[in-house]
From TrEMBL:
Protein name: Flp pilus assembly CpaF family ATPase
Domain Bacterial type II secretion system protein E: 87-355
CDD domains: VirB11-like_ATPase
PANTHER family for the chain: TWITCHING MOTILITY PROTEIN PILT, TYPE IV PILUS RETRACTATION ATPASE PILT
InterPro entries xref list: P-loop_NTPase, T2SS/T4SS_dom, T4SS_GSP_E_ATPase
Source species: Nonomuraea jabiensis
Gene Ontology molecular function: any one: ATP hydrolysis activity
Signal peptide: none
A Pfam family annotated for this UniProt entry: T2SSE
Family: Belongs to the GSP E family.
């Protein structure tokens, strides 16, 4: 058992010394430490603090920690500084899929096989849980994000790529949801291997990306939209310059330079306590067009950035990718129209439909469901692909892949741009 009170105390000491060193470096005109350098320096500071603690215990006539206890303390301090404290073991477990926290001692864990269990507390109190989230908000992302009474909502990307969403004060107890990023470097071949897509769909999407088609991925919460987006992005050639725009860094394409050596990741900046300094998603999409992108990838469309993104797609930035929440591939067009009405441009529905018809080539819909026929196993699979054909008062589209016998998408109708896809190796069967 690890003494969490000691971990908390030593984390504060090491954090203070680390901050002191940063100030010294800045005062001496030295460049800031890289993330890895900072971690290595922190390890040295942790050893120093633990050695001082052992000497102090001996001086007081008490038994110092054993080697095993010191190792556990060191791991706990490092996790508290750069990880997520007592949550770290859950994030280190490759089978953990989601973690929901309804107060420090109400922790529910979902596993990849569909199992859900209640877990041990992740903090001694709700106040300590809030403090942990505040530390993460200060160190994760491109800028520090507040989490307090004035800013009771938080979204960020954890060091391992997982997505964290937290709220306080608008709930009786602080609530946190963490959605794991279990598949970092993922390819369409991986998704074909695990049944998310069929071989036909894999070939189709590979050719669509190569042909620079604009693709919108749709589905419900936690359906696997981001994983599919990563897989599509990993089909893009390494010589292309990618600009990603996200509310909170999540895609992590820049973490794999062997696949994408030329990536710029934009992250929305929230306003400060005076309401100043905000940089919205729409502004970032607009800015991305001035950064010489080969493709613009918008992690998730949730608001008025949709109009800017659609305009970008119609202005020569072909091959763009994005995700959106929707209940079907057809519903995507209504969802986009709703967002466009909320934008500063206040686009009417018919104008939005014309914009959609000129911007989006394909909508890929991914389904999530518990398959009770095979023991309640959670399944995620692409069930529909819809081609946008034009506009006649409304968006005209045709479903080129429809759900097959097991729900997974199978070819249904010819694609109008078949010659373009064939030039990139797609030869459909069964039509």
């Amino acid at each position: 058992m690890i003494d969490h009170s000691l971990v908390k105390r030593f984390r504060q000491e090491v954090g203070d010394r680390l901050a002191h060193q940063r100030r010294l470096d800045q005062a001496n005109g030295l460049p800031p430490m890289t993330g890895e350098d900072e971690r290595q320096f922190a390890r040295a500071l942790i050893s120093q603090v633990l050695e001082e603690h052992a000497r102090n215990e001996i001086g007081l006539g008490r038994t110092p920690p054993t080697v095993e206890e010191e190792e556990a303390l060191a791991a706990g301090i490092h996790a508290a500084l750069f990880g997520v404290g007592r949550l770290q073991p859950l994030l280190d477990d490759p089978q953990v899929e989601n973690i929901d926290i309804n107060g420090c001692d109400r922790v529910f864990v979902s596993y990849a096989d569909g199992q859900e269990v209640m877990h041990d507390p992740v903090a001694e109190s709700d106040e300590e849980l809030i403090e942990l989230i505040q530390i993460l908000a200060a160190y994760s992302g491109l800028s520090s994000r507040p989490f307090d009474t004035a800013n009771p909502q938080l979204d960020l990307r954890l060091p391992d790529g997982s997505r964290l969403s937290a709220v306080m004060d608008v709930t009786v107890r602080p609530a946190v949801s963490i959605r794991r990023a279990r598949l970092g470097k993922v390819f369409l071949s991986d998704l074909a291997g695990n049944g998310t897509i069929s071989r036909d769909v894999a070939k189709f999407l590979t050719a669509a990306v190569a042909a620079r088609k604009n693709i919108m991925i749709a589905g419900s919460t936690n359906a696997g939209k981001t994983t599919l987006l990563r897989a599509l992005a990993n089909e893009i050639q390494p010589n292309e310059r990618l600009i990603t725009v996200e509310r909170a860094l999540e895609l992590g394409l820049d973490q794999f330079p062997e696949l994408h050596p030329n990536v710029v990741a934009f992250e929305q900046r929230l306003p400060n306590s005076e309401g100043q300094g905000e940089i919205s998603m729409a502004e970032l999409v607009r800015r991305s067009l001035r950064m010489n992108p080969s493709r613009v990838i918008v992690g998730e469309v949730l608001g008025d950035e949709i109009v800017t993104m659609l305009n970008a797609m119609t202005q020569g930035n072909d091959g763009s990718l994005s995700t959106i929440h929707a209940n079907s591939s057809m519903e995507v067009f209504n969802r986009i129209s709703t967002y466009a009405l909320q934008a500063s441009e206040r686009l009417p529905i018919d104008a939005t439909h014309m914009l959609i018809a000129g911007a989006i080539d394909f909508v890929v819909f991914i389904t999530k469901r518990n398959d009770y026929n095979i023991g309640g196993t959670l399944r995620r699979y692409v069930s529909s692909i819809r081609e946008v054909n034009g506009c006649d008062g409304r968006v005209l589209s045709s479903e080129v892949f429809v759900p097959g016998p097991d729900g997974t998408a199978v070819p249904h109708a010819p694609v109008s741009c078949l010659d373009e896809l064939a030039a990139h190796g797609y030869l459909p069967g069964g039509w």
